């Protein structure tokens, strides 16, 4: 009996060793097979496949100009039924949208709040990938206040040689030159407080002026779909316009800057001989809202959920979210969250549900 058990053990060990040797010898080929399956699965992904009909909002960039591992440059994805919209395009917009399961070629439109560099420095890559990924024959519409035409034209000039190379290499059938770049769709608020800038049977996107002086123009957006509504504040001081647009909305995505944390960075900079940073930290406070002010807006507007984005300064140490919020939780008693990249809020049509998840 013992000899039989020993023979079985030896056989199993030899079999395992043989399998291990086979895997080792053919590891390159096996890796390629695995990679092919992974790529096929990713190419097949399409974010709308696993979403219920409704309004969905994802943070493809929850940060500000400051480096933050959890929060890249400003970018918000909005899925409204069958429509895919992107609001602002910070430095990691293209990559984070891919992580969320977005096929860049199916982006219907891009909307910009203003032209600070952190809101547009990923736009060139995003527009290029929207063209290349599916060979779009039409450029992507890029909505924004006056100045958007200059920006879109400038990006076309910057990428003009790249366009020439790609079309020459792949051919018009694969990459039609007509789909290159963006199509600027400028809207001028003038003296109006707000205006509809996009509308179809079920979706309405309304722009409204905000106070980000000396940056002008600067706008926020209100997006509605089948009775569900979200407001994106854009960069702004505490604003009566944001309050007015947010009355009773399901979700308010509001920027916020913590003055005490910004001051701490300034004080630290002085200690290491970089006094100009202290002045920069002082300057940025006056054209952003504090978490407490955003909470006041959410409370007075009676919103369903408050999601903070454009988080400044960075929060690299666990526990800083609480310091960042300050007194905000005592002001707004509803649910709130300090956003990070990948956060996803779903507002299913025909319900009052607010579902919070992560896409990556």
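^ structure tokens above, recovered residues below v
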């Amino acid at each position: 009996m013992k000899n039989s058990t020993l023979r079985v053990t030896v056989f199993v060990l030899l079999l395992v060793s043989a399998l291990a040797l086979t895997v080792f010898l053919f590891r390159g080929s096996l890796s390629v097979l695995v990679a092919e399956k992974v790529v096929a699965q990713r190419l097949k992904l399409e974010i709308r496949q696993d979403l219920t009909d409704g309004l969905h909002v994802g943070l493809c960039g929850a940060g500000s100009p400051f480096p933050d591992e959890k929060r890249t440059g400003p970018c918000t994805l909005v899925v409204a039924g069958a429509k895919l919209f992107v609001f602002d395009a910070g430095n990691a917009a293209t990559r984070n949208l891919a992580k969320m399961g977005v096929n860049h070629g199916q982006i219907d439109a891009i909307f910009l709040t203003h032209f600070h560099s952190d809101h547009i420095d990923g736009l060139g890559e995003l527009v290029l990938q929207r063209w290349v990924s599916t060979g779009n024959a039409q450029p992507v519409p890029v909505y924004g206040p006056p100045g958007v035409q200059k920006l879109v034209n400038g990006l076309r000039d910057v990428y003009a040689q790249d366009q020439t190379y790609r079309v020459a290499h792949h051919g018009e059938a694969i990459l039609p030159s007509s789909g290159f770049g963006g199509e600027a769709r400028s809207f001028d608020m003038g003296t109006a407080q707000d205006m509809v800038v996009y509308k179809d049977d079920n979706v309405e996107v309304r722009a409204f002026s905000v106070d980000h002086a000396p940056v002008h123009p600067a706008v926020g957006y209100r997006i509605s779909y089948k009775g569900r509504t979200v407001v994106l504040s854009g960069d702004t001081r505490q604003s009566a316009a944001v309050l007015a647009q947010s009355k009773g909305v399901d979700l308010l995505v509001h920027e916020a800057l913590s003055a005490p944390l910004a001051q701490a960075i300034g004080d630290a900079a002085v200690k290491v001989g970089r006094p100009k940073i202290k002045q920069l930290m002082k300057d940025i406070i006056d054209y952003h809202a504090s978490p407490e002010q955003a909470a006041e807006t959410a409370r007075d507007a009676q919103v369903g959920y408050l999601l903070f984005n454009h988080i400044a300064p960075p929060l690299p140490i666990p526990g800083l979210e609480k310091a960042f919020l300050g007194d905000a939780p005592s002001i707004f008693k509803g649910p709130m969250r300090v956003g990070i990249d990948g956060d996803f809020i779903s507002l299913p049509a025909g319900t009052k549900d607010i579902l919070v998840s992560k896409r990556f």
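The first helix runs from residue 2 to 25.
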